[in-house]
Amino acid sequence: MVAKRMANIPESGTVRITNIVSDLKAQGIGVISFSVGEPDFNTPDNITEAAVQSLRDHFTHYTPSAGIAELKQAVAEKSRKDSGIPCEDKHVVITPTKHAIFMAFLAMVEEGDEVILPDPSWGTFEACVRIAGAKAKFVTLKEEEEYRMFPERVAEAITKRTKMILINSPSNPLGSVMERKDVQGIADLAKDHDLTVLSDETYEKIIFEGKHYSIASLPGMFERTITVNGFSKTYAMTGWRVGWSIAPPHITKEINKLQSQTVTNVTSFVQIAGVEALRGPQDFVQMMRNELKERRDLVYDLVSEIPSLHCPKPKGAFYMFPSYDQEISSEKMAEYLLKEAHVAITPGSAFGPAGEGHFRISYAACRQDIIDGMGHIKEALEKL
Ligand SMILES: Cc1ncc(COP(=O)(O)O)c(C=O)c1O
Questions:
Q1: What confidence tens digit (pLDDT) does each residue in 127-184 have?
Q2: 4-42+284-383 has which CATH code?
Q3: Which has the closest alpha carbon to 246: 219, 266, 260, 227?
Q4: Which atom, in ligand 1's list, is nearest to the CA of 99?
Q5: Where does ligand 1 bind, in terms of residues with CB under 6 Å?
């Protein structure tokens, strides 16, 4: 018998779609993929070279569990400079971003606790809340309000059981960027109700309009915020599995306990690559952002030409999350678009209850694929 806990953990909503993609490929049918959550750029060479050199230098042993001093310093320095987070290296744990989210919830919540999550939001948040034994309390974000997370709505969701609020700006899957007054309002609520905030800032450097505000930089917030961020999206390093958490000492201590008793440390030479990413030239980030902005404009124009799709213009990340008029489930829509248009998208149901009736387009694909894929989607939707 497996543990009862496992029944609480949702399966990935995309498995069936992945199976159909494999079947189509086996039949020699090409599929345009708008489903991957990673930039289609290569890791910059200077970063790769730093890792290769450290391998040659035999930097292949255990490191301190929370990460090598140089990388923790580089992360703290970057977070003070770019985001105004009043942190030092002792507040940093080097770990894959997704693992940071998992450890943060495991360290902070348990059975009987509630965590406020925006809906739609990335499915991993809810999964990790459940693994920790707690419950998600969703705050529905509305398309006609440009998916803003209004503090008044968050206030309505707070109960005696609430322990944490999660924010994610720019958002996966919405591409929305939080406004300063909303971040401030949520900070005030956290202070008034003695709550911890988990702020996922993974897409911080991929903002086309607006500005990034780290909630941990606001007065009185550092003590109650866990900020997670990483290298995956900013430096096209998804496969390297490295990111970080920043939290006050009493939380960092617990996160580090979990890290040291599980993965021990992030791969030694990958940490050296991380130092190079943060301290080396940053022109790659600017280049990628410019390119993604052009693709955002392109995909937005193409979506706007399809009468049954509706979506505010995303201001960040590399996702669009249109709603559709057709009355079929998002799982069925994904299956239909795959079979009819040979385009893979992610069904909205993977992003919480309010994701139903939507699908996510990841436009980290080349421009020709965007033009062809959106053309096929248009034709397929006209037939429905
Ligand atoms: C909002 C968000 N946070 C975190 C991550 C995970 O980052 P990593 O792959 O670096 O663990 C992702 C990846 O898709 C994401 O969308």
A1: 999 999 999 999 999 999 999 999 999 999 999 999 999 999 999 999 999 999 999 9
A2: 3.90.1150.10
A3: 227
A4: 11
A5: 37, 96-98, 122, 168, 172, 200, 202, 230, 232, 238, 243
